[in-house]
UniProtKB/TrEMBL annotation, chain A:
InterPro entries: Beta-barrel_TonB_sf (IPR036942), CarboxyPept-like_regulatory (IPR008969), Plug_dom (IPR012910), Plug_dom_sf (IPR037066). This is TonB-dependent receptor. Keywords: Cell outer membrane, Membrane, Receptor. Pfam families: CarbopepD_reg_2, Plug. It is found in: Cell outer membrane. Coiled coil: none annotated. Residues 130-220 form the TonB-dependent receptor plug domain. Transmembrane segments: none annotated.
TrEMBL record, chain B:
The lineage of its organism: Bacteria, Pseudomonadati, Bacteroidota, Cytophagia, Cytophagales. It comes from the Bacteria. Pfam families: DUF4249. This is DUF4249 domain-containing protein. InterPro entries: DUF4249.
Length: 778, 321
């Protein structure tokens, strides 16, 4: 760790030395969408004459230094907007708002050289997806999804078929920091994970970090998925209504004070229950199952003054499954429901042309409840709940000491409350409140500093330190986490990138399944189960070809993880309810190595990318697999993803995706053998009479010999999806039809493998599924 | 009703809903996955002579039946001294006319042509000191069943986990069907003694609840057969008293008894792991989903170079009046 800190100090001081610049004047301000007046994050602002530049921050703010009294050209660009060139001469610091116009002519050859190609970005393994990119990606049941689009990127593996679970560079799903307007979201699943909670109507863009993760992010080991909600149109009121096979969506946005403040409200709700409930009533079935989900995104921004702006973001969403079974003398009801709430108030304050501040106060929670009620002669009720909630306060400063130098620093304090397992049982005979685990409170304090700078024309870096303190009970953890990202430009078209990061995670996720069932338990690091730690290094080569029309990259990574957890052999969420979670898990280590290839085509009628990842991910636990290392459950050696988008006219788009993942590892029985029945007295009578062998007693006649952990490989997964999108301008707004086909050639991909009647069988979930989506906005 | 069990059922319903959409196909198990091994199963105890059954393991995707290994040579040992050798047992069951004694270590050394030598050993624990009692009927119990009590005296004496169950025996009339017309071979009626587990219900803190579920209607935990006394819970009380009742109805003609046994550490581990494997199976015997959340559960074996279990125990049967 000492070496890591020394390395950090070296690069940090290097950045400070590099800051010795001549006196300048500063142009600072915001970049906004000219049509909607929404601020644009991560827009590139460069000074052509000085070959320098910066990017807007999350709130669209930038600040660059210019040589006084000299005509200079400022170029502002970002994906999806026309590039703006400003020729300016300044004698003093100036506040400026730059408006970018959306690329309305989609076939137009834009000046791609003005975009920031990947080889010029400091951070390796960084991707930004816009809402437009996401909406053009073919999707299951027509519901476009940000997280499923991320699954097309190199180094990202999906979990089970059709689900939104992400395994990044050999990590587990809980190791991804998923933020919605800066607030962590603990459960991303709708509809058992087949949809994510992110409604694309409300999303502005998604920033995805998996290599060089800047110091401002902390608390997770593998990646950061930073989802920004749209601000809402500041000019006009817009309404959008959408209908897909599973849900309907409604969006309403508009100005509060024209050109200054706005709001956005987006609601999504499934209508599956509206279909299934009448069917059950008409059929007079004894079994009724009703599933529903909804989510609401609300955002409000209000300009208090030119230097102060207030943002309020709120998300709430919930899923619920109700099953009712009628039997002779009574009824049995099950209710599962789970959901998240996030709420954040942010106050932007511009101190001066070089210092931008943001205060955030946020709340997030995830909880689920499983309820069971049986009404017979007697009544029985049980209720099982679990949850996590955080209150957090955070202050961030963006400091722009020079055009080549961007400093970010901040502090935060978070109060976590974990309620991992609370069960209440009430029956005719007894009233029991049973709490295997009391709620656990923890405090997490974080301070970070991060410096992005350039030295000369070839070398740029992002160097930072994230220091965290975590207190739970009598146990405390302190983890300084240095982060270094370096970019060395070999020429104007190619560069080498290196990243190193140390990461600490104080949360663990207990999950038996990756299919998004509402049974995930978030638990805190404790005396017995320490914080997860990780080190990652990556080295990449980035090249742009044909005037930036193509970007190619190859990046290798290696990461090791300490204190990762797995369920002990035989443990289950459903069994041994009297055993605390710490006794159900075991602590071990993990390592992952891989190499990622990416080819992107950014312009022309055909756009898209092809990614290939060759990787290996292992875990080792002294209590599992006799202490021998075994493949991680989503270790897939080869992953190929292709996404193509063909725009054959202004309003007609054809898209397709193709995935290939080599088989994931499984542990299955490789032999069966005679055992001994636990009961020494009760015998099965089999053929002798009308009695069937009792399942329990006969089970032990045929025990399974499990293979070494995860040594068997499931068949490969591959799939092709296509979609066609047609936009028709109307008198007022436009109408959009999207027709899609999921799994075009109806591949039977493995979802589960199991033995049944002396045969190994594979269950496949989704055959070919056509879908449509209708949208109307006005 | 069982909350956890019902959650499992509801979980199964969720998956079942998903399954409605999907399809199933048979997958070939690669030939190199299966390795034929010798399976040795024996439970040395003072109530029977030393015996081990030898079979071969089978591919998991075959319907073939287990065949006893008839050409093996088995050496039985007591505290490291060879008692004798037995070879070529016709049905694969190799027995030596010696009843094990508590406190002694018994081992087997098995040689099967074409396989590595198999070895296993285990020590016979002391018999449990238990007193079983039956009390008057209790209208609060299912079927107004009586309350029962198992009193363990000096638990530390056995130094091994104790398992127990409550059973009844009764005469049952069976029929072996003849031909459909009854003319060629008529139905054969016969009587035999059937032993049934009575289903143990208890909230005793001394019982290990790993194979139990909470029965909401009785307000007690319902245990599988047999129940395990949790050695950890007896650390502070070496003379635990376990109170319980039963699920099933007792008839007048039934003989009710408890069967308690002290299991060696290895046998205890085998029993617990095999029962957990049963609980964690993905599908039940009818092919319906049982537990979608379970982790793979290997069954413990103490057989070196083979499979199975050589697990020692010492039992006590107590008839309840």
């Amino acid at each position: 760790m000492l070496k890591q800190i020394q390395l950090f100090l070296f690069f940090f001081l290097l950045g400070i030395v590099a800051n010795a610049q001549q006196k300048k004047v500063y142009v600072h301000g915001y970049v906004e969408d000219a049509e909607k007046r929404e601020r644009i994050a991560k827009a590139n602002v460069s000074i052509v004459d000085q070959k320098m530049g910066t990017q807007t921050n999350t709130y669209g703010f930038f600040s660059v230094g210019l040589i006084p009294n000299q005509r200079q050209t400022l170029v502002i660009s970002t994906v999806g907007f026309k590039t703006e060139r400003l020729s300016i001469t300044l004698s003093k610091d100036t506040l400026l708002t730059v408006f970018l116009f959306p690329e309305s002519q989609q076939l137009e050859e834009v000046e791609v050289k003005d975009k920031v190609p990947p080889h010029e970005q400091v951070l390796g393994g960084f991707h930004q997806l816009s809402a437009k990119t996401i909406e053009k990606t073919p999707a299951l049941l027509g519901e476009t999804d940000a997280l499923k689009t991320l699954q097309l990127l190199p180094g990202v593996q999906n979990g089970k078929e059709g689900t939104v679970g992400l395994n990044v560079r050999g990590g587990s799903p809980d190791q991804n920091l998923i933020l919605l307007d800066g607030v962590p979201v603990y459960n991303i699943n709708h509809l058992f994970g087949f949809l994510s909670i992110f409604n694309n109507d409300a999303i502005a863009n998604v920033d995805f970090y998996k290599g060089g993760i800047p110091a401002r992010y902390g608390g997770r080991l593998s990646s950061v998925i930073d989802v920004s909600m749209r601000e809402g149109n500041k000019k006009t009121y817009n309404t959008k209504i959408s209908l897909s096979p599973v849900a309907s969506r409604f969006l309403f946005e508009g100005p509060i004070v024209k050109d200054k403040s706005s709001f956005l409200l987006s609601i999504r709700r499934t209508w599956l229950d509206a279909l299934t409930t009448p069917i059950a009533v008409i059929s007079k079935s004894d079994f009724r199952s009703v599933f529903k989900f909804y989510d609401v995104n609300f955002k409000l921004n209000y300009a208090l003054s030119p230097k102060n702006k207030l943002y309020v973001s709120y998300y709430t969403g919930r899923d619920g499954l109700n099953n009712t079974i009628k039997f002779n003398d009574g009824t049995s009801r099950y209710n599962y429901n789970w959901g998240n709430n996030t709420f954040v108030v942010r106050w932007n304050h511009l101190y001066n042309q070089r210092i931008f501040g943001n205060l955030s106060v946020s709340y997030t929670n995830f909880d689920y409840t499983l309820q069971n009620e049986v009404k017979e002669v007697k009544t029985f009720q049980s209720r099982f709940t679990s949850g996590i909630r955080d209150w957090s306060i955070r202050y961030d400063w963006d400091i722009f000491p020079s055009a080549n130098h961007t400093l970010k620093t901040g502090i935060s304090a978070t109060a976590h409350r974990f309620s991992p397992e609370i069960q209440q049982i009430k029956s005719g005979q007894s009233d029991t409140i049973y709490k295997p685990q009391n709620s656990i409170d923890a405090v997490e304090l974080v301070a970070y500093v991060e410096d992005e700078f350039k030295i000369g024309a070839k070398f740029s870096a992002n160097v930072g330190l994230n220091a965290s303190f975590y207190q739970v009970g009598q146990r405390s953890f302190i983890n300084p986490q240095p982060r270094v990202s370096l970019n060395y430009a070999l020429s104007e078209r190619n560069s080498l990138k290196f990243s190193y990061g140390h990461f600490a995670q104080y949360l663990h996720l207990l999950s038996n399944s990756s299919i998004g069932l509402p049974t995930d338990l978030w638990v805190s690091a404790t005396e017995r189960i320490p914080a997860q730690l990780s080190n990652q290094v990556s080295l990449g080569y980035y090249q742009s070809l044909f005037e930036n029309r193509f970007n190619v990259s190859i990046e290798g990574f290696r990461r090791n993880m300490q204190n990762v957890i797995e369920y002990r052999e035989g443990a289950s969420f459903l069994n041994s309810s009297t055993v605390g979670w710490e006794d159900k898990v075991t602590v071990g280590e993990g390592k992952a190595t891989g190499i990622e290839f990416l080819v992107q085509k950014n312009t022309g009628k055909w756009k898209g990318w092809l990614s290939y990842t060759l990787s290996k991910s292992e875990r080792i636990f002294s209590d599992l697999n006799r202490g021998v290392a075994f493949p991680y459950k989503y270790d897939s050696r080869h992953n190929i993803a292709l996404t193509l988008n063909y725009e054959w006219s202004k309003n007609k788009t054809f898209s397709c995706n193709f995935f290939y993942n080599s088989g994931i590892p499984l542990q299955i029985s490789t032999a069966k053998f005679n055992g001994v029945s636990p009961s020494r007295l009760v015998k099965t009578v089999g053929f002798l009479g009308p009695y069937r062998p009792d399942e329990y007693y006969s089970y032990f006649n045929e025990l399974g010999l499990l293979s070494d952990r995860n040594t068997f490989r499931a068949p490969a997964y591959h799939r092709l999806d296509v979609s066609y999108r047609s936009v028709k301008p109307m008198k007022n707004g436009n109408r959009v039809w999207t027709l899609g086909v999921y799994n075009v050639y109806s591949r039977n991909n493995p979802f589960y493998l199991y033995y049944d009647k002396n045969q190994l069988k594979q269950f496949s979930l989704f055959p070919i599924i056509p879908s449509f989506t209708y949208e109307r906005n006005f | 009703m069982n909350a956890i069990f019902e959650m499992s059922k509801a979980g199964a319903i969720i998956i079942a809903l998903l399954f409605l959409q999907g399809c199933v196909k048979t997958v070939d198990l690669p030939d190199n996955v299966f390795k034929k091994q010798v399976v040795a199963v024996g439970t040395p105890n003072p109530d029977s002579v030393l015996s081990v059954r030898l079979t071969y393991s089978l591919r998991p995707d075959t319907a073939a039946v287990y065949q006893g290994i008839t050409n093996a040579e088995v050496s039985f040992m007591e505290d490291g001294v060879v008692l004798g050798k037995v070879s070529n047992a016709p049905k694969g069951v190799y027995s030596f006319n010696k009843r094990p004694v508590a406190g002694k270590r018994y081992a087997i050394r098995v040689n099967v042509p074409g396989f590595d030598e198999i070895y296993a050993e285990d020590s016979i624990p002391q018999a449990p000191r238990v007193i079983s009692s039956k009390f008057a009927s209790n209208p609060n119990n299912p079927n107004s069943s009586p309350d029962f009590e198992l009193r363990i005296t000096n638990y530390a004496f056995t130094q091994t986990p104790i398992w127990f169950g409550i059973y009844s025996t009764r005469k049952v009339r069976g029929v072996k069907p003849g031909s459909p017309t009854g003319e060629v071979t008529p139905d054969i009626f016969y009587e035999y003694i059937s032993t049934a587990n009575l289903g143990l219900l208890s909230n005793s803190q001394y019982l290990d609840r790993f194979n139990s579920f909470f029965d909401g209607l009785s307000g007690k935990y319902s245990f599988g057969d047999p129940a395990r006394v949790d050695p950890v819970s007896t650390t502070f009380d070496p003379n635990p008293v376990i109170r319980y009742t039963i699920v099933n109805q007792i008839k007048k003609e039934d003989q009710v008894f408890t069967y308690s046994f002290a299991a060696s550490a290895g046998y205890d581990r085998y029993l617990k792991s095999s029962i957990m494997a049963y609980q964690n199976r993905l599908l039940d015997a009818s092919g319906a989903l049982n537990n979608p959340f379970a982790e793979p559960t290997p069954v413990y074996s103490n057989i070196k170079n083979g499979l199975g279990i050589w697990g020692a125990y010492n039992a006590k049967r107590t008839v309840l009046q």
